Amino acid sequence: MSSLQALQQRMAQAVLADKPLQLDDIRGDTSADAQARLSIYRHGYRARLRDALASEFPGLRCLASRRFNSLLDRYIEAHPSTHYNIRWHGAGLAAFLDYAHPWLQRRELADMARLDWAISTAFDAADEACVAPADLASIPPERWASLSLQPQINLQILMLSCNADAFRRAADQSGPRPHLRRFKHPRHLLVWRQALAVRYRWITDDERQLLGSAARGETVATLCDRLAGLSDAEQAMPRLATLLHGWLEAGLIQSWSLDG
Predict the structure, then answer these.
(1) Which domain holds residue 79?
(2) d(CA 257, CA 243)
(3) How many domains does one find in the chain?
(4) How, if at all, do strands 197-203 and 182-194 pair?
(5) Side-chain half-sphere CA neighbours of 96 within 13 A
């Protein structure tokens, strides 16, 4: 290891340490002694992490309100950044809020962090192809039963216990802080990117199950059978047609194939 690398490691350890450390490589002067200079680096490091996290979690900032900065400080203390790209430091924030006191007592905070992070990662995801309704126009009616539709790889389905979407919209639109609504039963929110816009909407349980089935390569005939087992068999085909149309219009499907 070179002397420069060794110096960089010692400096990093000193900046990350929570307790005072002597660092002979820092020179003091009449303006500030070595410990004061080290404190400046420590404060600056944490401030940059806090700023990066705040930009990634606007919905959480809206929901947590005045407790947001202390929440971030606790996370930074517990989970120093280990990635060379500061953008990824927030990957563990939702899990931290699931177990850390006192935040675990407010499940909506972890839910909000998951939604913020899902939106952020959806925006950064690689571009995928998008099947439009016109792309399927040439398929003969008798072949539709053997059609398989593959959803976008990067779409996400979140199980949330509150109206986290309202707080994210309020943050994005600089609107008033909404009232928190805790659901009696968890609901599912679909998050995906359509062109350059990240979108999200609540989905019903049958749609959630069918998206999972489609991702496993099941055919339209199998999807229809699944719907028939979930609700009124006579409404299975109309319901499936509505769902398929909505998926195509929303850009949720990236490819299709025909069995046989």
Answers:
(1) 1-110
(2) 18
(3) 1
(4) antiparallel
(5) 16
Would you put residue 101 in left (φ > 0), alpha (ψ -120 to 50) or beta? Answer: beta
pLDDT digits (tens, 9 = 90+) for 93-120: 999 999 999 999 999 999 999 999 999 9
Closest CA to 44 of 76, 82, 87, 67: 76
* Three-state DSSP class for residue 36: helix
Question: Which of 153, 152, 138 minimizes the C-alpha distance to 258?
Answer: 138
130: in domain? no
The yes-or-no verdict on residue 26 having pLDDT over 70 is: no
Residue 205 domain flag: no
As a whole number of angstroms, the longest Cα–Cα distance in the chain is: 86
CA distance linking residue 120 with residue 55, whole number of Å? 10
pLDDT band at 82 (very low <50, low <70, confident <90, very high): confident
Residue 17 is assigned to a structural domain of this protein = yes
pTM above 0.70, yes or no: yes
Rounded CA-CA distance 176/252 in Å is 31
Tokens of 36: 């004061």
* pLDDT tens-place string over residues 30-64: 666 666 666 656 666 777 888 889 999 999 999 99
Site of tokens 């900065």: 69
List 258's β-bridge partners, or say none.
147
* Among candidate residues 100, 78, 58, 64, the one with its CA nearest the CA of residue 198: 58
Task: Record the tokens describing residue 194, joined without a space.
Answer: 């359509």
Residue 161 placed within a domain: no
Identify residue 251 by its one-letter amino acid code: G
* Average pLDDT of the residues in 127-133: 91
